[in-house]
Amino acid sequence: MEQPSSSATEIVETVEICAAPFPQQFTQGTKTVLVKKHSKFEKLNGFAVGEMKKDATRKIIFRGYGEACEKCVSCVEVFKRKYLLGKLHQWTEIAFSRSTVVHPPEVEGGASTAIEKTLPTIFILLSKDPFPDALQTDSMQTSDDVDVSLFDKVVKSEKKRQFDQTRSFKRKTENVNKWRRQMKDSKKSYAEKKGKSEAPVAKKQEAS
């Protein structure tokens, strides 16, 4: 579970990461490279290459969730180009983690609002050894393959769903009329000046 530190007046997001959707024989004792939105390829791939150079290391897992899914795929592609010690066998799976976003109360003494959502989470297992024939799936490939765009639609669809969720929450909490056009600053300034200029006229008429 990942939870950033935050004060009571800030929005807090807690992410409960799902388990890697691979058989235990591939996950037990296997190092995982955690790819985040702002991670640097050089640092992650430096660690991964160092691990995979060891004779005792037969496999490694790359993982990214939410907006980091696409970056995770790119990171693996960069790693495969840099790894020159032999062919790698790849197994890619998509799962979903759970995120809870807590918004602070809008008024003092009010209740906080919690919103739960799912986050697409991509797991990419790279192995020096071929996977058993009994486990073969369409989501497996080798390091010679370059087409890893099968999951772009999943990521984009989830981003749109999250955007719609956030927009719906803002409308409920802020009572925003989506059909009402916002007044431009120039019009606001003109309306304020007009109101001030009409005020003395109204007072003069009352006096007469």
UniProtKB/TrEMBL annotation:
Annotated compartments: Nucleus
GO BP annotations, alphabetical order: tRNA 5'-leader removal
Signal peptide per UniProt: none
GO CC aspect terms: nucleus; ribonuclease MRP complex
Protein origin, superkingdom: Eukaryota
UniProt-recorded Gene Ontology molecular function terms: RNA binding
InterPro entries: Alba-like_dom_sf, Alba-like_NAB, DNA/RNA-bd_Alba-like
Descriptive protein name: DNA/RNA-binding protein Alba-like domain-containing protein
Transmembrane intervals: none
Keywords: Nucleus
Biased composition (Basic and acidic residues): 171-208
Organism of origin: Steinernema hermaphroditum
Keyword flag Nucleus: yes
Family: Belongs to the histone-like Alba family.
Location of the region described as Disordered in the Swiss-Prot/TrEMBL record: 166-208
SUPFAM superfamilies hit by this protein: AlbA-like
Pfam families: Alba
Residue intervals of the DNA/RNA-binding protein Alba-like domain: 31-97
